[in-house]
Design goal:
Blueprint: H1 2-21, H2 23-45, E1 51-52, E2 57-58, H3 67-71, H4 74-86, H5 90-103, E3 108-109, E4 112-114, E5 120-122, H6 129-144, E6 149-155, H7 158-161, H8 175-186, E7 191-192, H9 196-201, H10 217-231, E8 244-251, H11 254-259, E9 266-271, E10 279-283, E11 288-290, E12 315-320, E13 327-332, E14 349-353, H12 362-367, E15 373-379, H13 380-385, H14 389-393
Parallel strand pairs: 6-7, 6-15, 13-14, 13-15
Antiparallel strand pairs: 1-2, 3-4, 4-5, 8-9, 10-11, 10-12, 12-14
Length: 395
């Protein structure tokens, strides 16, 4: 037995030596090393992109080396994200990877599921520790401002509302359970606006885009009906036939870009009631103004959803001619952008703050303005991964 093992070991060694002497193996090994080295050099000297038009998001920039960030692990985390975001030919690699995954029968790519109906579904996030930090900050903010009527509207994703459209056995979190836990944790500190059941009731309708993670204007309309009853706002006129008008039928959103999957282009519609409210939209930090909630020039770009309120901005102030004494502080993500048109007839002034881009002091902003209401409006997936909201709400 020992002789056989010794003989087998010798034979393996001889085969290994033979491979090392084989010119083809040497060339292959050297080529692989050179390829890795070449990509490393190209990535290092490749100019960082600040924004991805394909994925419609900001990209990680090269992190600055600091002892404190190295010791607490932040540097390596940022470095890994930077390498992933700035990898040369990134968009082409995503397409190639998706094609390979489909050949292998895989049903998700980049956190996106290819649904049974051909729609794309973003994978729901898990409840993490950061969620409770943000909720504590919301509770504290609202308790410091009892003069405000405080509301929370968290919008579930298409995968949460219509799990029937997902591939069989897709491992997803229950957003209904997540929303229930969040509502229970906040208690009476903030008045919750529950829209899950409303959206699920209309899940067969066009309430989410097929290629993008946002809800459609129709989905926002149904949510506003629920919000109006909770916030004491005027009920929408003719709710059975909302005045929505299509402005594009060629929208291809972030889920298609991120995953590489192909789906039928989406239609974007806008809310256009018979009686328009006169208003002025001020993009404060950009020092620009508009008389419209819609930026039609965005329809000529890849980010067509950016036509709502001209995309995301740190601070936006909307002054209206509405016959109302109420003023609203809206702390939000991009889901609020197509929701705002339903609100302008109900508030004399609306101030929108996007904590992802706003670095000002919310306490000072609140103290300098006589708000009557505050609404936190977020997509649930965004809310679960947000790591800056609590910083904006600190005293």
């Amino acid at each position: 037995m020992r002789r056989e093992k010794r003989r087998e070991k010798q034979q393996n060694g001889q085969r290994a030596q033979g491979r090392m002497k084989n010119p083809a193996y040497c060339v292959l090994g050297i080529s692989f090393v050179l390829l890795l080295f070449g990509f490393g050099v190209l990535n290092y000297y490749h100019k960082d992109r600040s924004f991805s038009d394909t994925e419609n998001r900001m990209l990680e920039q090269k992190p600055q080396w600091q002892i404190s960030s190295v010791l607490d692990g932040r540097f390596m985390k940022s470095f890994e994200t930077w390498q992933t975001d700035q990898f040369i030919f990134r968009d082409g690699w995503i397409t190639l990877r998706t094609a390979a995954d489909r050949i292998l029968g895989k049903k998700d790519s980049g956190g996106v599921f290819l649904g049974k109906d051909g729609s794309l579904y973003e994978k729901p996030e898990k409840l993490g520790e950061g969620v409770w930090t943000n909720l504590d900050a919301i509770r504290s903010f609202c308790q410091r401002h009892p003069e405000l009527s405080s509301y929370l509207l968290l919008v579930p994703d298409a995968a949460g509302v219509n799990p029937e459209g997902l591939p069989d056995f897709a491992p997803v979190e229950s957003q209904a359970d997540q929303l229930q836990q969040i509502s229970g944790y906040l208690g009476d500190a903030v008045l919750n606006i529950p829209v899950y059941d409303t959206l699920r009731e209309h899940r067969q309708e066009y309430i989410y885009y097929r290629t993008d993670h946002h809800w459609t204007t129709l989905g926002a309309w149904y949510a506003y009906e629920k919000a109006a009853s909770v916030m004491g706002l005027a009920e929408p006129e003719a709710p059975e036939t909302p005045p929505l008008y299509p402005v594009s039928d060629s929208f291809e959103g972030t889920l298609a870009s991120r995953s590489g999957y192909q789906a039928d282009p989406d239609t974007i519609s806008v809310f256009w009631p018979g009686a328009q409210t006169d208003l002025v939209v001020s993009y404060v930090e950009e020092q620009e103004e508009s008389a419209s909630l819609y930026a039609s020039e965005k329809l000529k770009t890849r980010d067509q959803y950016g036509m709502f309120l001209n995309g995301n901005h740190p601070l936006v102030r909307i002054r209206t001619m509405a016959d109302s004494k109420r003023t609203l502080l809206l702390i939000k993500d991009s889901y609020a952008n197509c929701f705002v048109p339903f609100l302008v007839s109900q508030f004399r002034e609306i101030v929108l703050v996007d904590p992802r881009y706003y670095y000002g002091d919310l306490e000072s902003l609140t103290a300098g303005q006589s708000f009557t209401d505050v609404l936190f409006l977020y997509n649930l997936n965004t809310f679960l991964t947000d790591d800056v909201l609590h910083l904006s709400l600190e005293e």
